[in-house]
Each structure stands twice: as C-alpha cells, then as structure tokens.
C-alpha cells in the first residue's frame, strides 16, 4: 500500500515506556506467544492491554491502551519449581477470567481481568512493571453513585442490574 506522495509523518509519534504506578488495573489478554529459552525451555508470554486503572473504588480509563507483558516459564529443564510457579500463575489468571479449566494457552485470549502491578528493580537494569496478582474484574468494589438531593430524581442504576423483562 502506498501512503500518498508525502508518506506518513512519524516525527510526532509519542511512545511511552514509562513505568505505570503500582496498583490494580483492568486488562484484556490480547496475545500469547511461545519463546524458546537459552536453556532449552519454553517461555509463554502474554500481552495484557490496559483498559483502565482503579483508584480506590473509582475506575478511570487512565493508561488505557498501554501494554504489559507477563512471562511464564512453562518448560524449565532442571527446575520443576519454576514450572510449578508458572502453571500456578496461569491458573490464577484463568480463575480471574472465570475459567474452570484451561486446556490450551490460547483459552485466555481476549479475556478481561484485573492485574495488580508492582515495580521490579533488578541490579544493573531499569525498573520495570511486574504483575503481582490477578482478580476477577467484578471483584473490585463498584463506584457508588452520588445520592440525589431533595427535588432531584434518583440516578439510573450504573450496572443495569434490572433486566428489561423484570421492569413491569
């Protein structure tokens, strides 16, 4: 495809690789990829796209679109413990996504969950975000709608918990 006579101007593209603040984020698992390790093992890498951030009980679209990667050492010659840790982390992801049984690594794709980010600092490297926990996106306390003042009608339910067939 040709992008016109002037092409695409890349001079104004801003990429942010800055750390995200520690805390809970809603994310969607968008990609999974297997990578060979230098020791003959297999690393499973999931790409999480941030949907928004929880600040206490308030959910905002802050950091929407940013990506976080989680790496899981599913085959690790010489370290059964590393494999057990990886499988346990993947099981926690599956549980947070509402899955009872994960038969294939791709079962998690396009699922939404909450991830808790922390900061990891390895000697000789820049600090980086690391996934420290998982939970169901519905486990976060919903934002409480503001109470109406006298003379105002109550706000419509935020969650839409009343199905259309229930309002008679």
Briefly characterize the structure.
With 168 residues, this protein is mainly β. The chain contains one helix and six strands.
Describe this structure in words.
The structure is a single chain. The chain has 168 residues and is mainly beta. The chain contains one helix and six strands; from the N terminus they run E-E-E-E-H-E-E. A hairpin with a 5-residue loop joins strand 1 (23-36) and strand 2 (42-55). The model is unreliable at 140-168 (pLDDT under 50).
* Major sheet: 6 strands, antiparallel
Strand content is 25-35%
**Gap from first CA to last CA:** 56 Å
Derived from helix and strand composition plus strand pairing, the structural class reads mainly beta
CATH class categorisation of one domain: Mainly Beta
Rg on CA atoms, Å: 21 Å
What is the CATH architecture annotation of one domain?
Answer: Beta Barrel
The pLDDT mean sits at 82
What sort of overall outline do the alpha carbons produce when their principal axes are compared?
globular
Helix content: 10-25%
**So how many helices?**
1
Which descriptors would you attach to this protein?
168 residues; mainly beta; OB fold (Dihydrolipoamide Acetyltransferase, E2P); 6-stranded antiparallel beta sheet; globular
């Amino acid at each position: 495809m040709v992008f016109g006579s002037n092409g695409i101007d890349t001079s104004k593209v801003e990429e942010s690789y800055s750390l995200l603040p520690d805390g809970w984020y809603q994310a969607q698992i968008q990609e999974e990829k297997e990578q060979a390790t230098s020791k003959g093992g297999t690393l499973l890498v999931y790409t999480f796209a941030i949907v928004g951030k929880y600040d206490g009980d308030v959910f905002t679209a802050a950091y929407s679109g940013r990506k976080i990667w989680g790496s899981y050492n599913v085959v690790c010659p010489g370290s059964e413990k590393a494999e057990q840790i990886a499988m346990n982390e993947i099981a926690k992801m599956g549980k947070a996504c509402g899955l009872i049984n994960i038969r294939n690594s791709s079962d998690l794709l396009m699922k939404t969950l909450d991830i808790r980010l922390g900061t990891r600092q390895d000697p000789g490297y820049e600090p980086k975000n690391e996934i420290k926990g998982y939970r169901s996106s519905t486990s976060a306390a919903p934002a409480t709608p503001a109470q109406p003042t006298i003379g105002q009608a109550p706000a419509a339910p935020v969650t839409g918990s009343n199905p259309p067939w229930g309002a008679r």
